[in-house]
């Protein structure tokens, strides 16, 4: 059953089409990832779904409630965490959570139990008397999440919750999200990180206010037209430069110490054997070249290539 239903949702700021006709359906209990670069329109979309901003046109329902007609009811039953830390820096961790509990009308005995649970859950109990301004970036995000959860929302909206957070804090944050998911909370988050997109049950690739592709990660990966070659060698950066010179910048990408080469369906310039020969002739030491399954980043880069080609056709 769809808990979030979006129909042709649009938001324009003058001539800028921040969100340009979005249609999505998110199942209850899912972790949904709205994935795209900065400026794609992710924040604007979340703000409309959280009834903080009215759309220019189109409609959406959150847990059966209309985002404009039932705005106040929606706000009472969702958790929302903005991209920027929006809590009170001169209050302690505990005081911030208590403040949000009072805003949402959480009763005294229930409030005490929930605060203790959230402090333990978020591993902030040792820091409950520390001012929010003195917290690390990762702890600030955990505090923001604790405040968003104090009234036990059915749906949680998170706008790039791990942006600029260190890898350890990101891992801890996702541990908390998985716990919430197991408890039945529906999570709608935006992210620019493809490794986070892989953790979601459903994703939508977002670019210039439009959904380019959506589905489960496995469904989305089937969209890639062509083959991915993965290169392992002793000098990956040297190999990267050589392969980009020979094959082109747009089809050779570095992932840590691995190189991915996109062989698009329509591209007959090279094959696994030809790439292997290039590596062999370049004296790069031990190497391995093999076909591999695409990642979500591979798919996104392929979609971007298609989109840029379409835009070029329109211009010329």
Individual helix count: 11
Helix/strand-derived category reads alpha/beta
CATH topology grouping of the largest domain:
Rossmann fold
How far from one another are the termini?
44 Å
- Show unreliable segments: none
CATH class of the largest domain: Alpha Beta
Question: Helix coverage percent of residues?
Answer: 25-40%
Mean pLDDT rating? 89
Shape: globular
CA-atom Rg in angstroms: 23 Å
Strand order of the largest sheet: 6-7-8-3-9-10
The number of domains is: 2
Strand content: 25-35%
- Biggest sheet layout: 6 strands, mixed
CATH architecture of the largest domain: 3-Layer(aba) Sandwich
- Number of DSSP E strands: 14
Which series of helices and strands comes N to C? EEEHEEHEHHHEHEHEEHEHEEHEH
- The CATH homologous superfamily of the largest domain corresponds to P-loop containing nucleotide triphosphate hydrolases
Main features:
Alpha-Beta Plaits; alpha/beta; 4-stranded antiparallel β-sheet; single chain; 2 domains; 6-stranded mixed β-sheet; 316 residues; 38% helix; Rossmann fold; 11 helices
Strand-helix topology:
Elements: E1 2-13, E2 16-27, E3 31-35, H1 42-49, E4 57-62, E5 65-66, H2 71-77, E6 78-81, H3 93-103, H4 108-121, H5 137-149, E7 155-159, H6 167-182, E8 186-191, H7 194-197, E9 202-207, E10 210-215, H8 217-221, E11 226-233, H9 236-247, E12 252-255, E13 258-264, H10 272-281, E14 287-292, H11 296-315
Helix pairs in contact: 3-5, 5-6
